[in-house]
């Protein structure tokens, strides 16, 4: 058993529950996440991190040394997933009109537990409340040299959950397997051991120039070759020791019905 923080269905309450696999226990009753729609357990600003998996940089190859920057990034490359993107476990992912497919962005969400300013790497984990699974959805794009606002910041493009696993129950955030399934078929498998900036260093580097507040979420990054999703596809992202997040892709008209 591990301890997690979940938003209880049908209420606005955030509660600590006991979790085993895809089941959580609340008030003596068991609930299975594959039978539930759960609101996102997060409330702060979500900061995404670009180019933090080694495979991403390797794929860019020599282009990293061409204009406009002429070298690999020296600091974390960040973007924001605004409030309109936030969604929960079991909720629909909208497929915008004109888009044929989407990218599933499997990301470890690092939930900040207290105000973090200019942290040292060795103290960074003390400021983490826990971890959650995030699907950093986007419309496929190629350029990393300009903010992909239209592709990444659409309504419903940031499912998170199903809960926040407390920090103490995730022994090593830099050695977690990440698996992505589309319609039950494994489409991607990697590990947070492939992060360029491990979790502690990422937090330290980000808080060197900006404050992270309690409740903010810092995404560790999205692996290279993100799986594609089409209308009707069910995507499931599982992160070892954290949880499994599942959503279905639907046309915007169907997605709007759930609002």
| CATH class value | Alpha Beta
Class based on secondary structure composition and strand pairing:
mainly beta
Query: Considering DSSP H and I runs of 4 or more, what fraction of the residues is helical?
Result: 10-25%
**CATH homologous superfamily label:** Fumarylacetoacetase-like, C-terminal domain
Number of DSSP-assigned strands: 18
Poorly predicted ranges (pLDDT <50, ≥5 residues)? none
What does the largest sheet look like?
11 strands, mixed
Number of domain modules: 1
Oligomer: single chain
Strand-residue fraction?
A: 35-45%
GO molecular function: hydrolase activity
Protein name: Fumarylacetoacetate hydrolase family protein
Domain Fumarylacetoacetase-like C-terminal: 45-249
Family: Belongs to the FAH family.
Features:
single chain, 259 residues, mainly beta, Fumarylacetoacetate hydrolase, domain 2, 11-stranded mixed beta sheet, 5-stranded mixed beta sheet, 4 helices, globular
Compile the SSE list and pairings.
Layout: E1 2-7, E2 14-20, E3 23-26, E4 29-32, E5 46-50, H1 54-60, E6 77-81, E7 86-87, E8 92-95, E9 102-103, E10 106-112, E11 128-135, H2 149-152, E12 158-166, E13 177-182, E14 185-191, H3 199-207, E15 217-219, E16 228-229, E17 234-239, E18 243-251, H4 252-257
Parallel strand pairs: 5-15, 7-12, 8-18
Antiparallel strand pairs: 1-2, 1-12, 2-3, 3-4, 5-6, 9-16, 10-11, 10-15, 11-12, 13-14, 13-17, 17-18
